[in-house]
Amino acid sequence: MCFVCMCVCVQPRYYRQLVEFRLAIEEINKNPSLLPNVTLGYHIYDSCGHALKAAMSILQILSGTKEPVPNYSCGRKRNIAGFIGDLTSETTMISAQILSLFGFSQ
C-alpha cells in the first residue's frame, strides 16, 4: 500500500523543525519545575503531505497496532493528550475530522 512508503525527499527546513520539537520536549522533561511529575512523550509520523497517509497514521496510533484498525485499541493504555497537525490544510483537515470522532484535540 502506498501510504506506508517513505517520503521521497526530506526537506532540510522540515527536518530542522522536527529536531527543534524533539529538543524542546527533552528540555521540558529535564526541568522538573516546568511540569512537575509529568513526562512528555511523542511519536512522530510524517504524512509527506498526503491526506491518506495522515489518516492511516492517526488510525494506527489510536489502535496501537501495526495495521490501522478504526474503533479498536490493542495493547497497553496510552495517555494521548493531543496531536500536532501537519503543515498543509488538506492533511490537517482530514486529521481533525478523524480525531474529533475520537474526542482528541489537534
UniProtKB/TrEMBL annotation:
Gene3D superfamilies: 3.40.50.2300
Superkingdom classification of source: Eukaryota
Topology term for the membrane: Multi-pass membrane protein
InterPro entries recorded: ANF_lig-bd_rcpt, GPCR_3, GPCR_3_Ca_sens_rcpt-rel, Peripla_BP_I
GO MF annotations, alphabetized: G protein-coupled receptor activity
Subcellular location: Membrane
Entry keywords, A to Z: Glycoprotein, Membrane, Receptor, Transmembrane, Transmembrane helix
Gene Ontology, cellular component aspect: membrane
Domain Receptor ligand binding region: 21-103
Name of the featured protein: Receptor ligand binding region domain-containing protein
